[in-house]
Amino acid sequence: MMGPSHALSGAAAWLAGSWALDQYAGYHQSPLAISVGALVCAGGALLPDLDLSGRVTTNQGGATVAHTFGVFSLFVAEVIEKFSLGVYTATRLSKDPRRNNGHRTFTHTLPFAALVGWGTTALAAHFGKWAVVAIVFLMAGMALRGLFEEWAERAGWVIVALASGGIAWFTAANLPGDRGYPMLGFAAGVGCFVHLMGDIVTSAGVPIAWPIPTGRRMWRMIGIPNAIAVKVGGKVEVLVLRTAFTIISLLAIAGLIAPWALHRFAPSTFAGSDH
């Protein structure tokens, strides 16, 4: 799927999950925590595509997420793409084809999603708010680039970076004390996993079984048959899936806000009715 679809799916997954935890497990989060989690999950849902690099010097090509911070993120994408290709080349078996790029290889695996989740949690636990600021800044930038692709492209990466900095500053200013913030890592890891699920419904698929070999292949791309696969950038993705993700997000937000609104405003309403 394309960047905006991945970002929307990440936000929808986090908001829907937060609503389900609130309703059925009694796990309540503050509006700030829900918002930050949704942003981090949306950003995390774009992370795997950092293995699709472009032309760094001309700021062209590459995935949506690679343009988040201009040539800087394009350079990072170039490094990640080469690293992913190196992992592929080092672990490929006899039936795995030779490749000259690393797209949809290491960063599109379950171990990568787990590594992102663990690494984010470890950074936040060790460095506290400073790490939280950096994590939220990076993830918010990617989320903005994905969720508001046309605006971000027109505004440019500097404006995106400034907006991300404002979100990170506001988050740090309102977070309570220094603590581990493990939900940040969970949100980032979930975002990566949602990305894999999004790509697995396309015909290209992802190497979801890696590093478990299947036959004489280590990097078997697992997707669904072409007849029912979602075409990348097609009408099903752009119109149907994005609409569904948006509706899920809005319903989850409504479900999360409704109890708070009733608790806040209902008592005064009832009190007024006694007079």
Describe the structure.
The chain has 275 residues and is mainly α. It has one domain. The protein is built from nine helices and two strands; from the N terminus they run ααββααααααα. The chain has a two-stranded antiparallel ribbon. Helix 4 packs antiparallel against helix 8.
Output the keywords:
single chain; about 280 residues; mainly alpha; two-stranded antiparallel sheet; 9 helices; globular; disordered C terminus
Give a short synopsis of this structure:
The chain contains nine helices and two strands, in the order H-H-E-E-H-H-H-H-H-H-H.
Topology:
Layout: H1 3-24, H2 31-44, E1 54-55, E2 60-61, H3 71-91, H4 110-127, H5 129-147, H6 149-155, H7 157-174, H8 182-200, H9 235-273
Antiparallel strand pairs: 1-2
Helix pairs in contact: 1-2, 1-5, 1-8, 1-9, 2-5, 2-8, 4-5, 4-8, 5-6, 5-7
Question: What structural class results from the helix and strand content?
Answer: mainly alpha
The share of residues in helices is 55-70%
Annotation field: number of helices = 9
Total number of distinct structural domains: 1
